[in-house]
Design a protein that fits this description.
Elements: H1 2-15, H2 19-36, H3 42-57, H4 66-84, H5 89-103, H6 113-134, H7 137-153, H8 160-180, H9 185-200, H10 208-228, H11 233-251, H12 255-272, H13 275-291, H14 295-306
Length: about 300
Amino acid sequence: MAINAYGEAARLAKGENLLLYYALYLMNIASSHRAMAQFENRRQNLLKSLEYRLEGLKYRTLQTNPSDFSSSITLIGIYYCDIAQLEEFDANIQRAIEAFQSAFVYRNAKTIPVGYADTQSSLGYCYLLRAERNHSQEDLKLAIQSFEESIQYRPASASPTRYGETLGELGYSYNLYASLVPDDAISHLAKAKGYFEESLKYHNDVEVTEQARILRGQAQTYQMLAKAENNVAYLDIALDMAKQALESRLVKCHFADAADSHEQVGWIYHDMGRSEQALESLREAVQLYRMMDLNYDADRLSGLIDAL
């Protein structure tokens, strides 16, 4: 197993006082645990990934190795963001935000513009998660600000895939705006629709994970448009896109994302009046949320099912 091999290499490097190599192997162990978290023992693997990343950071300081420090602290922010969705949401989201802000000390628009853009995009995602959880327009504005800053310093010519991902996050942001400010829902959903369509231009067939996220976002837009414009035909479009996203996520065995897609499919069925299929998909979502240690979402959804 890769983790065991990296662990042995780290032990030998530390014994020889090769501390930069020691830190590198710890980072590799952290990345391996995060990859495993997609498939099993989500909480345990994410906490392990954070533990090894923090240990490695001791030997990659801002003073001795500013470039590696800034990239490492950005990854630590991403890990805190992952863990926030499992436990201590507010505290871990705040830790993530502080980590990203620490990275800007060196990873700024002048020194490393593309790296700065990457960190801004990750920061925006944290603000977006907090805006969704707390129904906060203030956090949503900060999310959009970060995503727009990211696009400015990482144009499509520099990194088309990452540029496309950030366009997708802007799509999600305007979907949320439509939910928080229903009087302007149609105009916000039009913006979201445009961002998602533009985003797909920068993803090829290999990038199944990101394509599934964009399809999920588009399904959300059409589901909301069905209500905003009182046009049930949009629900058929939404269902087709949501099912495509679900299938892609199941094929990749990304079960946390698949749980989210099962929930989305269930609510679309519910809006269509197909109660039996809705309950089947929603209950499947609860099971997958539990399996992936996403207990907040499992409890939230279970309560909503009980209220139907």
